[in-house]
Design brief:
Elements lengths: L1 H13 L9 E5 L2 E5 L18 E3 L21 E3 L7 E2 L12 E3 L7 E2 L12 E3 L21 E3 L21 E3 L5 E2 L5 H9 L12 E3 L17 E10 L12 E11 L3 E8 L2 E6 L21 E2 L4 E5 L7 E9 L2 E12 L4 H15 L6 E2 L13 E5 L18 E11 L1
Parallel strand pairs: 2-3, 3-4, 4-6, 5-7, 6-8, 8-9, 9-10, 11-12, 21-22
Antiparallel strand pairs: 1-2, 13-14, 14-18, 15-16, 15-19, 17-18, 19-20, 20-23, 22-23
Length: 418
């Protein structure tokens, strides 16, 4: 219904609308054409007939394209914008052009592009975006372009492309991605495999080459040597103290996130306590537990070290919650989580929790008690109880747990992979 309304509106307006003075408008081969090329224009003119199907604005000095830039011409099938000075294509500038089949944005300065607008352009068959300053393409950018046949992305600034970028392009027959400064790490190996297996024509493959790392510079992607690559793994363990760190008096909760993967993964801690959520990119402290480079800085409440350890000195009720360690590299993510709760002996909560976890032990679910380092030996060991007691506390000792007497630290460990 909406498309019929647009057709009616275009037919009506074509009878009353003229043509921008700087452009030439007319009919050729059954197409309504507006030619505004080579006019030294700095912005998109107004006053087009609504039934225009081909609009050329190439070889001007157009700057940024704002939202609604082409609302006057909803029936466009071809839009030519090459050789301008466009830097930004704002959200909504192209989204209304649902009949568009050919779009040429090549030879501009585009670094900021509204990829979501492409989701509306399902009729698109030709997309030229070469010779710009584009650096990132979202994985779902082309998901609705099932009719796209030719895609030109060459001569941009892409360091990598996400695995699956071209999955939605079921009609694609021609792809140009040469002359980009690709960083040939594990995250780009999929493109090498895909380029060999696909029936899509990919010209100038010797120019689809590595710019980094230095030892691979200049090597075409198709001749890239084998790389040692592995997705991240995570094992989260508990320790009652941390060697080499100056700790306060009182109990220190120490979690250790042991990660592996190639490239080495980045580690992030996510902490959810009754007081709120905290996210920490590791490390946030130096070996002494203080913020590096900040003289006289206090120790953070949660101390993430470069070796993967997280310390919480003076652990108390306010630090109860879920502690998650997430490791991420180019090949994916892995996560380990631990739920930490304190309960005093005799509390109803301890009795209920104890019955629950001892029940798991009877069922052979791997529930056990330790007083040192704990780590699950297999996926069935998802619950661990640690009993600790404070004995003969020194007077005036700054220990926030003294009021609890003997207490129970409950750790529920679960490992998630993505």
């Amino acid at each position: 219904m909406k498309q019929l309304h647009l057709l009616w509106l275009a037919s009506f307006l074509s009878c009353v609308s003229g043509c921008p003075e700087v452009c030439d408008c007319g009919e050729k081969y059954g197409f309504q054409i507006s030619d505004c090329a080579y006019r030294d224009l700095q912005s998109v003119p107004s006053g087009f007939p609504a039934n225009v199907t081909t609009l050329s604005l190439s070889a001007n000095r157009l700057g940024d394209l704002g939202a609604g830039a082409f609302d006057e011409v909803p029936l466009l099938q071809s839009l030519w914008l090459a050789h301008n000075e466009i830097r930004v294509v704002a959200p909504g500038s192209l989204a209304t052009l649902v009949y568009l089949k050919s779009l040429d944005l090549s030879h501009n300065l585009i670094s900021n592009f509204s990829w979501n607008d492409l989701h509306n352009l399902s009729a698109l068959q030709l997309l030229k975006m070469d010779s710009n300053e584009l650096a990132v393409i979202p994985k779902d950018a082309f998901k609705n372009l099932g009719d796209l046949r030719s895609l030109q992305l060459n001569h941009n600034r892409f360091l990598t492309l996400v695995d699956g970028t071209f999955e939605g392009l079921t009609s694609l027959s021609h792809l140009q991605i040469n002359d980009n400064p690709f960083n040939c790490t594990c995250g780009l190996l999929w493109l090498k495999v895909w380029a060999v297996a696909t029936a899509v024509s990919i010209p100038e493959q010797d120019n689809i080459a590595c710019s980094s790392p230095p030892f691979l510079k200049g090597i075409p992607l198709g001749r890239l040597p084998p790389l040692h690559c592995a997705p991240p793994t995570v094992q989260l363990t508990y320790q009652p103290n941390q060697d080499g760190a100056e700790l306060r008096d009182g109990f220190v909760l120490a979690l250790h996130c042991d990660t592996d993967g190639q490239p080495p993964p980045e580690v992030q801690w996510r902490i959810q306590t009754p007081g709120g959520k905290v996210e920490i990119t590791s490390p946030n402290v130096g070996p002494d537990g203080r913020v590096p480079g900040v003289a006289g800085s206090p120790q953070p409440r949660f101390q993430a070290f470069a070796n993967g350890s997280l310390l919480i000195p003076g652990f108390g009720k306010q630090e109860e919650g879920t502690y998650s360690c997430r490791a991420t590299n180019e090949l994916g993510s892995a996560e380990g989580s631990v739920n930490v709760a304190l309960a005093s002996p005799g509390e109803a909560s301890e009795d209920a929790l104890g019955r629950k976890f001892h029940g798991k032990a009877v069922e052979g679910k791997g529930c056990y008690t330790v007083d040192n380092e704990v780590q699950p030996s297999g996926p069935e060991d998802n619950v661990v109880i640690i009993y600790l007691s404070s004995t003969n506390p020194k007077k005036n000792r700054a220990n926030p747990l003294e009021q609890l007497g003997p207490w129970m630290l409950l750790l529920c460990l679960c490992h998630l992979a993505f």
